[in-house]
Amino acid sequence: MIYLFYGSDANKVRAKAFQWVTATRSKAPDAFYSRLSADAISGASLREAVSAQGLFFSKTLVVLDDPFSLTDSAEAVLDFLPELASSQNIIAILAPKLIPARVKKIEANAEKVFKVDAPAKPARGFNSALVNALGSRNGQTLWKELLKAYRLGDAPEMVHGLLHWKARDLMQKGSPAWKPQEARNLSRDLILLLSDSRGRDIPLDMALERFALSL
Known about the structure:
The chain is of the alpha/beta class. Helices cover 56% and strands 13% of the residues.
């Protein structure tokens, strides 16, 4: 019988699996236990896991530890799924970050499935501080907001798009800090900056920082 442990939070998946192993072993302390790492998993070792019995135990608990980290062990497990599922022994498959197609195959043969995902990051709202810094023509503040956006995981292309949107907004609505022609030049400069960063060695994030400090 198969027990599957998977999910996007590798550390918590591993902790969950071994907490379960500890609890299971406490209920049958005389049962044989073994752990097979990916490099030890093969057709032969799985065949032994399926059929293993002894004089002093009737069932075996086997942990297949991250078998999908290696191609050979992954193929062996997938090939043996029906045998693992029908075995009287307990086969725990510990597979963090398992791809959906493989989850589906194993779920169809599993006695029970445990999934532990990392908590979803809260969605970030509109970066008003960034666009306001450009709108007020405050280069130092804009540079700081750029660095903050990068630290929070915003891609330079997304940041550039937001700044160019603000430049177009300044052209349409006007601003005490930007004369109409200056706003048009700002929009043009941001378009050229993106184009230049693609054809030169300077990355877009650094190009945006230079741009901010030049205001």
